[in-house]
């Protein structure tokens, strides 16, 4: 469980060099495995370092993707995987835009990082997403306020494959100092029990999106 398997990765999974840090992560993986809610630890590129079984279960039905599997890089999954909107409800406003805002902040801090540059190039290749990043994102932040960007405490729509769970979750950021010193962050999605009969299966309610999916800004005209 310590290092979750996923699709093919363009970069090796981040692993600390010191034996002490590796031992801490092994013990932290044990702790993560005891958490009943989806929980993930990632680095400044959103490359996944640790993820528990509940996280794997949440995304068990996503199709294979060469670069955007949730257990490899969570940011790439949110932005680029065709199935992301079938699990992450209100995908654009509740998940894509906050993640783009955090990505923009990471680029300011780590502008020369090759992993972040690769994500930036992939954003630029999608005209709709590039327009959202350059023009739509600043407008959205001004309209909703900076609080909408924060992950910790946010209640966001979530479509879990298990009908016992409700239609949203609370995102909790809980990064201990030792993880923070390693350059890692942790997010947990606290699920809520369903309060009404389960809706129709996701595949019947929501179609997969295409690559150019963001509608926060108009598509560029020729």
What does this structure look like?
By secondary structure, the protein is an alpha+beta fold. The chain is 41% helix and 13% strand. It contains nine helices and five strands; from the N terminus they run αββααααααββαβα. Strands 2-1-5-4-3 form a five-stranded antiparallel sheet. Helix 5 packs across helix 7. The longest helix is centred in the middle third of the chain and has 19 residues. It is globular, with a radius of gyration of 17 Å. The N terminus is likely disordered.
Keywords summarizing the entry:
alpha+beta, disordered N terminus, 5-stranded antiparallel sheet, 222 residues, 9 helices
Short description:
With about 220 residues, the protein is of the alpha+beta class.
């Amino acid at each position: 469980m310590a290092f979750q398997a996923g699709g093919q990765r363009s970069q090796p999974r981040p692993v600390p060099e010191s034996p002490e840090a590796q031992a801490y992560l092994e013990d932290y993986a044990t702790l993560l495995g005891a958490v009943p809610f989806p929980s993930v630890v990632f680095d400044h590129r959103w490359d996944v370092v640790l993820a528990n079984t509940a996280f794997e279960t949440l995304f068990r039905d996503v199709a294979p993707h060469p670069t955007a599997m949730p257990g490899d890089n969570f940011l790439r999954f949110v932005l680029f995987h065709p199935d992301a909107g079938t699990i992450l409800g209100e995908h654009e406003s509740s998940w894509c835009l906050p993640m783009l805002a955090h990505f923009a902040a990471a680029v300011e801090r780590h502008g020369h990082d090759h992993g972040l540059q690769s994500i930036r190039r992939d954003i630029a290749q999608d005209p709709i997403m590039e327009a959202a990043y350059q023009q739509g994102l600043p407008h959205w932040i001004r309209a909703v306020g900076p609080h909408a960007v924060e992950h910790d405490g946010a209640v966001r729509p979530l479509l879990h494959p298990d009908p016992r769970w409700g239609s949203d979750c609370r995102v909790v950021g809980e990064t201990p100092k030792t993880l923070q010193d390693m350059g890692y962050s942790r997010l947990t999605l606290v699920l809520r029990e369903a309060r009404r009969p389960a809706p129709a299966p996701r595949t019947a309610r929501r179609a997969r999106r295409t690559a150019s999916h963001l509608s926060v800004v108009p598509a560029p005209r020729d």
